[in-house]
Design goal:
two-stranded antiparallel ribbon, single chain
């Protein structure tokens, strides 16, 4: 076995597409598309609390408040969850993962989610 082959086997499991899919499906979480307009996702991360007021569950549009980028509610797009790298589970928020948000043309990634709570619009 050459060095190149050996290096491929030392990649952390969550860094491969198969591993990310396998591992992320084991996390507690919610698909944004299963929510309805005006539901709120309350996400507590390692560093901040975020309130994600869903405007359009199909495309992830939301008013977001929390953290240093969203001191007041701002319209943004919730892309999904990531371990912090380049792989993204689109349209899904998971405990233990980081939320990726697109705001003002920038990619914002939160610290790992500690808990999620859904407040349904009644």
């Amino acid at each position: 076995m050459n060095k190149e082959t050996t290096r491929l086997h030392n990649i952390p499991r969550h860094c491969s597409l198969d591993g990310f899919t396998e591992i992320s499906s084991a996390f507690d979480g919610v698909s944004i598309r299963t929510l309805t307009q005006f539901d709120t996702v309350c996400a507590q991360t390692a560093n901040n609390d975020y309130y994600i007021f869903i405007l359009d569950p199909e495309n992830g549009k939301a008013l977001i408040q929390g953290g240093r980028y969203f001191e007041t509610p701002m319209e943004a797009t919730v892309n999904g969850s990531t371990f912090g790298g380049c792989m993204l589970k689109m349209g899904w928020l998971g405990v233990g993962l980081r939320i990726e948000i697109c705001f003002d043309g920038k990619r914002i990634v939160t610290s790992p989610v500690q808990s999620l709570r859904i407040e349904k619009d009644h």
